[in-house]
Amino acid sequence: MYIRSGEWVTISSIKPIIKKYLKSLQARIFLFFILVGVIPVLLMRYAVLTNYESQAVEQKAQLLERQCQQILEQISESEYMHGNDSDQVDRLIDQMASLYSGRLILVNSNFRIIKDTYDIDVDKVIISEEVLLTFQGTNSTNYDEDNQFLEMTIPIVNDDSGETEGIMIISVPTVDIANGKAGISRIVLQLQSILTLLILGVAFYVSRILTRPFGKITQSLEDVAGVNDEEISIPDYTETQLLAEAYNRMLKRMKAQEDSRQEFVSNVSHELKTPITSMKVLADSLLAQEDVPVELYREFMGDIAEEVDRENKIISDLLSLVKMDKRSSDVHIEETNINQLIELVLKRLRPIAGTKNVDLVLESFKPILAEVDETKLTLAISNLIENGIKYNRDGGWVHVSLNVDSKYFYIRVDDSGIGIPEESQEHIFERFYRVDKSHSREIGGTGLGLAITRSAVLMHHGAIKVYSREGEGTTFTVRIPLKYVP
Length: 486
Fold this sequence. Notes:
By secondary structure, this protein is of the alpha+beta class. Helix content is 56%, strand content 18%. Helix 6 packs antiparallel against helix 7. 21% of the residues are buried.
């Protein structure tokens, strides 16, 4: 542990901070730059030293070979390999060995050493792979990095016959190459250190710059967390701007939903309270009179029954919506005859249509069997057709058509009603939303019917769309798979 600003800071308290930083995008960008930048710098040292060493060895070998060729010419001219002594050849060989602090050996065609500048292996026989290959006319170069020496075998060719009459073996130390390599290694190491520090600095700076817009988004979200009415804009990157735009769209939807909820609470409170108030007034009126006429009693009880039905309708819609929220846990799928289901819905709604003089027509093209939750689908279709009746004109019509293909069945509900304004069409499936609040209250709507319908359709993995023009009627299309996939 250590002290910071008068407080004890333990390693255990730092670990979560380090772990959080390592999981951050900034840390990953930082590590990416280090990998991309530092690894090549580290490999650079190996490449530079390897390249230097190979070039230095090659150059030294070429230099040795050129200088040895001068001696080989003298050896060939003096027939030194055939036993003729030559002070000039001996002097050139000794000078060569002395110049490079090395060793020079001459081997005749019998593999016997006839000259050794070290004077320790004369008259000895030497047979090796390199010697045999050289007698066949192939030069051999061997560099021993660990022991720091370079050894070359060069054939001695007779100028007249063109035959190899011996070989020259020269071995020289490579301390100069090792020293040069060490010097370059120090320079490269210094360069590596500078580049590594520079890369670390650049990586840290760039990672902070690249992730700064995300910090702006976080700060902006925190700033509006308690307000919920301010949009944000972070145009630094395309991605941050897209995030900001997505947040703004979500904010608008949340505000719209919140407004709808508040309005719903107000409306439902009024709708629930109004029937109860009416029933209380009617009941108190009956109780206040001792001898209530039968006609008045029947009238008041009929009014109370209507208020009870109205209250029951509101509560039923609320309960249906709650059941829809349970989704898969409350879905009862079975194979159902969709034609019969629609006919039963129309049969139940015909009396309601009759009160408004609305004509109900069913057009069915093929018999349809599908895997559905009959109760929920019935509720959904009933809401669509009942809305077509309620929001229709006196003497209008509601046309229901049913069709099918290899994967889906389709239900289309057309009406000649009042239509839906274009600006309201994208909101009608939202919970608690009502297009004409005053008209809906007169009819008795709660703003839950289409939300219930949409939930039921989505529960079957289907789709629902609306097409409408104000004053010209509305068309709802529903598409549902024939086979239910959980």
